[in-house]
Amino acid sequence: MALAINGRAPTKEEIAIKEVRAKLTDVILADKTFDDDYYLLQWLKAQNLNPDKAETMIRNSIKWRADEGIHTNIAAEFSNEILEQFPIPFSKTKDGVPIGFVHMGKMNFKKGVTTLGRTGWNKYWAISYAQAEELMIAYNKTYSKDNGEINSNSTRGIVGFVDAKNVSSLQLLNLDVIRRGVDSTRTLMNVFPAMFNFIIFFNMSTSFKVLFNAIKPFLTGPALTVEINGTDEKVWRGRLLEIVNLEVLNELESHWKSPK
User: Fold this and answer.
1) Which CATH architecture is the domain 12-68 placed in?
2) pLDDT tens for each residue of 168-207
3) Yes or no: is domain 74-253 CATH 2.40.30.10?
4) Domain CRAL-TRIO spans what residues (predicted)?
5) Taking the model in full, what pTM does it have?
6) Cross-strand pairs, 101
7) What backbone torsions phi and psi does residue 180 show, to the nearest 5 degrees?
8) 66-102 burial, b if ≥16 CB within 10 A, otherwise e?
């Protein structure tokens, strides 16, 4: 029987956190990021609170990040031109949760893949994910509400908005673009699990569904909700404004210039 915490029985989440901590003593000593119950809980949630699977996922992620040189300083790796052409701005929802916004219709993915190559393009997105994860960790440390106990609702992943307006059919039907989309989605789900609480796609055209159908099988997880909205601006904008204030949405949308 698990030991009581402050006179009460521990939650299943607290039991799982204690077990995974015991398995990761060496990891925690080497990287204090993992000395954080809320961060460990995100990994556990990605594996349905299975400590053994969470440990394996964490160790695999650490190794992959080290092998690929993944960090959070994207400006140290990529030119200003790339950063301007493929911006991923972050802000906050009405209740303070970090949010990332990708305007796929104003990103020339074919050019990005051609310019950076497979390795560089995948690294660009992996570092962007690492930045988002850093925001998630900071949010959960500051705002998590455990009310004296840790449960599944004690932590939250971030929110993602993906605008697919005017995505070129020529890009979406390009085999390299599709393959790199699958690569980056796999990286997201395998290396940065439970980072997103939900992702909202909107302005999704028929042609965009070609790419979406390719990545959809990999865009799954017990803590992730994927929401699809079509091209009716009244509908999708109303949905987004339930989550963010108008000034935040305007600021996020202002980051993109015309494709070059």
Assistant:
1) Orthogonal Bundle (1.10)
2) 777 767 888 888 888 998 899 889 988 898 899 999 877 7
3) no
4) 75-260
5) 0.89
6) 161
7) -70, -30
8) eeeebeeebeeebeeebeebbbbeebbbeeebbbbbb
